[in-house]
Amino acid sequence: MLVATLILVALSAVFTNVYASCQYIILDVNKVKSKSVEDYKDMLKEVDLVYSFKVVGSSRLLFVVRLNESSFEKFSKINLPGDAISIAVGDLSDKLRTVGVDWKKWDELPDANLTLFERTLKFEGEPTEGAVSHLQAYGEKIKPIVESFPNKGFFPLGRTPFKAYFIFSLSFRCHQVGVGSAFALNYLNGPGDSTTKVEFLTKV
């Protein structure tokens, strides 16, 4: 399982800005004290809310909204209280399929042992062909691991520095996360080229 996390975090280091269709919006919110989680979810009742998470030990909430033709106008009218940003993202497994790597897609995330790997990359001067090659190679390498651990992966579209969100259900997560994060810092020439933020999540 330690190897699993090492490779999973390494995959985040090959996140690229190769174009993919927008499928979701991630709402990253710092909740205000006067509002409950249910208040926020009620504000999102008119859109297709797929996941809602709370970052353990903080007021940060993450909502994943599936986009469709009817949801754009509804979404544009939502004004969440507190510091909130919206990030257009694509599904990572769908992106990999377009470059020839076919992963098993998990239907659902379990309610326990959820870990968020939030990866920020500084790809400077990397040609598109090279980025795609990285994605293909690591996608193939971690395929058996990704198919063993329930997960969801998203990547923001058209943003720099590049960022990726990976949510995994990992048992014994504290030890795994520590080893995996240390490995990630030494990938792509060290921490100056990339950073990994690790958070524990609960579904809300």
Automatic annotation (TrEMBL):
The lineage of its organism: Eukaryota, Metazoa, Spiralia, Lophotrochozoa, Mollusca. It comes from Pomacea scalaris. Residues 1-20 form the signal peptide. Keywords: Signal. The keyword Signal applies. It comes from the Eukaryota. This is Major perivitellin subunit 6.
